[in-house]
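Appendix C reproduces, verbatim, an entry submitted by the partner laboratory led by Prof. M.T., so that reviewers can inspect both the input and the predicted structure.
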Amino acid sequence: MDHTHTTETPTGPTRRGILRAGAGIAAGIAAADLVTPVLARVGGALGAPNVVGMSTGRPDPQMQAVLDQFVALHPLPLPTVTPEVARQLPTIADAVQGVISVRGGRPVQPVGSVNHILIPGPGGRILVRVYTPIGAGPFPVAVYFHGGGFVIANLDTYDASCRALVNAAGCIVLSVAYRQAPEHKFPAAPMDAYAALRWAQANAASVNGNPRKIAVVGESAGGNLATVACLMARAHGTPQPVYQALVYPLVSNSTSLPSYRQEANAKPLDTPSVKWFAKYYFNTPADALSPYAAPLQRARNLHGLPPATVITAELDPLRSEGEAYAMRLAQAGIPVQATRYNGVTHEFFGTSAVVDKAKQAVDEAAAGLLSVFSK
């Protein structure tokens, strides 16, 4: 079942600057030659992002209010703590609740029901939270993978995103508690993601879902898992999901891309934190060369993957790789809707209770899903 150590190399120029043996994974890997020309064509290129909002290089007032609450919670820098401690630190979800407590508003979007199930996985049973819309069904299904750099966060951290998607897209959301590092290093998470996709395709009816309308959605590290599940399906010759919605996906093995420099000190995610995640996620430098770790650089091609929505945030170290990946998908002939939201940061997608651009981004992702669910 496990093809995760199959290494694909990109066509075209040879990759340079691969991680030096003594430097350690946390130092990152220099960008593949193929990425630089792709990024240089952002303006008007095939698959280049639409842009929402004016760029001022600063968070807009609604986003800033969330960041102010986040800072007020005194989160410690990730590189200064262990994963066990990091999992207890404040999150943007906590900050949103702080804004709501000051300004008022509805803290949780109601949905039809929320239940939990256990599904089989390659390393044991996987917990899945099932969000179901109001109505009779059967409903389309979005298999959702949360963020957290493959190390931190959990189903509760991303509860707001799932509820918003249920209501915007009218679909069941299966939020997957995949295995996390360092207890379960690469390739445990992608193996669980693929297992969850296959379970949904075979068993959607058991949760009142439509097995012919299964999509994948992911944020950050979860965006990696969503598209990697598609790559694994292709490698195994199993059905593709009907759609992939990727929100600031972590799809590169390089911290040399432009946004890593431009947003090196951004909050809530900065460049040192991305390196910290990599230190705990990978067993060896060779792991970072897998197409299932870095599909932007290492997937030989992206042919045959499902249509996609790719959402990026201006003030996010992951912006460059998400936009480059959207262009690679488009160049492979995959229909792509790519949008950069200016004035917002990493993790904005789950802040729709207090940030208008987050609601707009959720609606955009839902529109992509509905474009295939409605067929």
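Residues 356-373 form the longest helix (18 residues). Additional entries are available on request from the coordinating office.
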